[in-house]
TrEMBL record:
Organism domain of life: Bacteria
Region (Disordered), start-end ranges: 1-27
SUPFAM superfamilies, per the entry: (Trans)glycosidases (SSF51445)
Organism: Streptomyces sviceus (strain ATCC 29083 / DSM 924 / JCM 4929 / NBRC 13980 / NCIMB 11184 / NRRL 5439 / UC 5370)
Protein name per Swiss-Prot or TrEMBL: Glycoside hydrolase family 5 domain-containing protein
Basic and acidic residues bias spans: 1-11
Classification via InterPro entries: GH
């Protein structure tokens, strides 16, 4: 069995890796560790017949790993089956889950519009067929989503274990069937973030949004790095090893794979206007066959330890809690084995690795690793892929990292801003050859 670690809200982040140079002391008060909750029985279809007893069992297993929070997802068609109908029973289910998490000692981030989950898209019927509305540009569709987020915020506001409300899971996965320009996407995000904040109230918790990696290194993708790094209260990153073919290009035990979450965090910091804006590694996981099962514990440990050396890291939220049961059809193969627990609820070796790494980090001294050297990123929206796996910038950053440098990322337009560089503690700039 895996021991339960204390759920101490004053928990602190740990110090440097023993194999790296000793940094100066720079304490950060909290580093959070959690998991994206996938119900063991029925996957997210469990919302059709929500079972509190089964949910309680799942959450107890999660808490037993020493994790302190979960990210949870209801399904958009069940919450809002008609543009002007938000089902109170579905909202109550979500509120009940937040309460059950509190009983288990877990905090909760709620994603509002799903949207996209594990290769499936969930659209309400009022957005489809001859009712089709572009969910990013149609004023009525945007208004309906804003109404949903206000309603969820009001239903959840005031709960002490609520971290906050996120617009939805990787909404940019829907862009292929709902084309939009960057300006239209910005309007969409601004409108929904304002609605979520209105629902929660000024002190109701974090309000944020998420996107998959195309937002960071997809050429001309309409969800931009600037939107991810400047809208909402924190920046969320989802550094998956299959994005850009990272694991297939470099190998599952390569430095490029083991430092990918660290790199994604530093890349996100470069696009922020506030140098101290928090970054949340909100999804990372060990998808087979990109990460073979035998390598998953090592991958998890190294990913968490390397990322923990980043300043202003909010936390790491693993994907996901439980494997998808193989009685469910038509998932991509990698989706069936991403859990910390198998479909029978048994902890896998990766769960042991995650729990042990978290315990080690919480036991360590208060410090972060300084990054006084930065690699300058010079790209346009049409050349953003240079910063992704296989790109010249990505490969130079990883080369420096393998040499023992801990590079920060600085955008070319900030490279001459001495005040900005000083605020970030950057003393040396390197440019890609």
């Amino acid at each position: 069995m895996i021991d339960t670690f204390a759920q101490d809200k004053s928990r602190t982040r740990a110090g440097p890796r023993s194999d790296l140079a000793e940094p100066e002391e720079d304490p950060i008060p909290t580093l959070r560790f959690g998991v994206n909750y996938t119900p063991r029985h029925g996957w997210f279809h469990a919302w059709h017949d929500f079972d509190p007893a089964r949910t309680r069992e799942d959450l107890a297993q999660i808490a037993g790993l020493g994790l302190d929070h979960v990210r949870v997802f209801h399904l958009w068609p069940l919450l809002q089956p008609n543009r002007t109908l938000i089902r109170s029973a579905a909202v109550d289910q979500l509120a009940r889950l937040v309460g059950l998490a509190a009983e288990a000692g877990l905090d909760v981030l709620v994603d509002g519009v799903q949207g996209h989950l594990s290769s499936f898209d969930f659209y309400p019927e009022w957005t489809r067929s001859w009712h089709h509305r572009n969910v990013f540009t149609d004023p009525d569709a945007i208004g309906a989503q804003a109404d949903l987020l206000r309603t969820l915020g009001r239903a959840l506001a005031g709960r002490p274990n609520l971290i906050g409300l996120q617009l939805g899971n990787e909404l940019n996965n829907l862009i292929e069937h709902n084309p939009a320009t960057p300006t239209e996407v910005d309007h969409y995000l601004d409108t929904l973030l304002a609605a979520a904040r209105e629902g929660l109230g000024a002190d109701g918790g974090l309000v944020t949004h998420s996107a998959y990696d195309a937002a960071w290194y997809g050429d001309d993708h309409p969800f931009t790095p600037q939107a991810s790094a400047r809208k909402g209260d924190v920046t969320t990153v989802h550094p998956w090893v299959f994005s850009g073919g990272c694991a297939s290009l470099y190998g599952p035990r390569s430095p490029q794979v083991l430092h990918l979450a660290e790199y994604g965090t530093e890349l996100a910091k470069a696009y922020a206007e506030d140098p101290s804006r928090p970054v949340w590694i909100q999804e990372t996981g060990a998808p087979e066959p990109h990460i073979p099962a035998a390598d998953a514990p090592h991958f998890a440990r190294e990913t968490i330890l390397n990322a923990s050396g980043c300043a202003d890291l909010w936390g790491v939220t693993w994907w996901c809690s439980h494997d998808v049961d193989r009685s469910l059809a038509d998932f991509p193969e990698l989706e069936y084995t991403l859990g910390l627990f198998d479909a029978a609820g048994r902890p896998k070796p990766i769960a042991e690795a995650v729990a042990a790494t978290i315990a080690e980090l919480r036991a360590g001294p208060l410090s972060v690793e300084p990054r006084d050297t930065a690699l300058v990123l010079d790209c346009t929206p049409s050349t953003r892929s240079v910063s992704g796996p296989g790109g010249a910038y990505f490969e130079e950053w990883m080369r420096l990292r393998q040499q023992g440098v801990r590079p920060a990322v600085v955008l070319a337009e900030r490279a001459e801003d001495e005040s900005y560089l000083a605020t970030r503690g950057i003393k040396e700039l390197i440019r890609v050859p």
